[in-house]
Amino acid sequence: MNKAALLPVLLVFLAGAPVFAKKDPPRPFRLPAVVTLNGAQVPAGIYELTLETQGSGVRVTLLKDGRFVATAPGVWVKTGIKYSEDEALFRVDPEGSRSLIEIRFAGAARAIVFDDTNATVHYSALRH
User: Fold this and answer.
1) Measured by CB atoms within 10 angstroms of the end CB, which terminus of the chain is less buried, N or C?
2) Cα separation of 102 and 108, whole Å?
3) CA 37 → CA 9, 10, 69, distances in Å?
4) Dihedral-angle region of residue 6 (phi above 0 means left; psi in -120 to 50 means alpha; beta otherwise)
């Protein structure tokens, strides 16, 4: 087989190959309260947080002592504010529980926002 015949085969092979996600090294992340993440109840504590990013999408996984605790899909969102420390943003649910809706990282001007299709958002507008 000559080189000219191999080129189309190689192009078809590469076009069908999956795009791999970028996996960041694990980092410690503290949750100050019990939260719900993607339906899983996660106790307060320090966790090993891993991120697998593909484009603007990201999969967050929490491990405790090397054991799986929870995982959730999210998206990277530019915030325009560089955070001074890691932060977890919660939503207080009607029954009083807390759902993790955003993770912010020290030194970054972006955050991970978790998609919650069950959330009810209330908007308010002030009249002038």
Assistant:
1) C
2) 13
3) 44, 42, 10
4) alpha
Q: How big is the chain by its Cα radius of gyration, in Å?
A: 20
Going residue by residue through the chain, which has 128 residues, state the pLDDT in tens, using 9 for 90 and above.
555 555 555 444 444 444 557 888 999 999 999 999 999 999 999 999 999 999 999 999 999 999 999 999 999 999 999 999 999 999 999 999 999 999 999 999 999 999 764 544 443 344 44
β-pair type (45-54, 57-64)? antiparallel
Give pTM, 2 decimals. 0.74
Per-residue DSSP letters for 81-118? ---SS-EEEEEE-TTS-EEEEEEE-TT-SEEEEE--TT
Domain coordinates of the chain in residue numbers?
Answer: 19-114
Q: Given the structure tokens 């190689």, which residue do they identify?
A: 10
Residue with tokens 């191999």, as numbered in its chain: 6
SS (H, E, C) 35-79: EEECCEEECCEEEEEEEEEECCEEEEEEEECCEEEEEEEEEEEEC
